[in-house]
């Protein structure tokens, strides 16, 4: 399986794990060594992905979804990711619309992970044990290796009440996935928040083969 990095949300990108068909098979540090640190959070996500990849299509999509969802919600700051992806229009939405969007965005994000990480073909993640400070945030540097080719994927992490969470993903160390998604959302929101909700719900159905 080849490594594919896509830029657009609407092309089926796994926004917060942007490379298809990869597994966690190697890292620079064991998870237990950094149980509370930002690198350990990425390790936790990678190990959960490895689990569903080994299950593959032999396990129904909804079951793999239920296995992965708690980890995604622990590692990703989904409310902040959504707010930053919507941008300035966020404050114009009603609390009910914000709540609906967060629910669908969460399900959409997990569904994309399950869809993209659906098989194991010997790929590996390499996670640096030494995050780089970016103001009060930390950047976890990583590589995803497939067929001998390494792709750089960095995670911008922020401390949220004592727990480090992903607030952006940087492709090639510089391309912000929040910025890319904001561009996609701006187009969809031009027709109103219900349009964005409908598109995300349809995408969830497509990714899950109609099972969700």
Description:
InterPro entries: Hopanoid_biosyn-assoc_HpnM (IPR017842), MlaC/ttg2D (IPR008869), Tgt2/MlaC_sf (IPR042245). This is Toluene transport system Ttg2D protein. With 212 residues, the chain is an alpha+beta fold. It has one domain (38-208): Nuclear Transport Factor 2, Chain: A (Roll). The protein has helices at residues 38-55, 61-75, 78-86, 95-116, 177-189, 193-207; strands at residues 124-127, 132-134, 137-146, 149-160, 163-171, 175-176. Helix 2 (61-75) packs across helix 4 (95-116), helix 3 crosses helix 5 (177-189) and helix 4 runs parallel beside helix 6 (193-207). The protein is globular and about 45 Å long. The relative contact order is 0.20.
Question: Characteristics of this structure?
Answer:
single chain; six-stranded antiparallel beta sheet; disordered N terminus; Tgt2/MlaC_sf; Nuclear Transport Factor 2, Chain: A; Hopanoid_biosyn-assoc_HpnM; alpha+beta; 212 residues; globular; 6 strands
Topology readout:
Blueprint lengths: L37 H18 L5 H15 L2 H9 L8 H22 L7 E4 L4 E3 L2 E10 L2 E12 L2 E9 L3 E2 H13 L3 H15 L5
Antiparallel strand pairs: 1-3, 2-3, 3-4, 4-5, 5-6
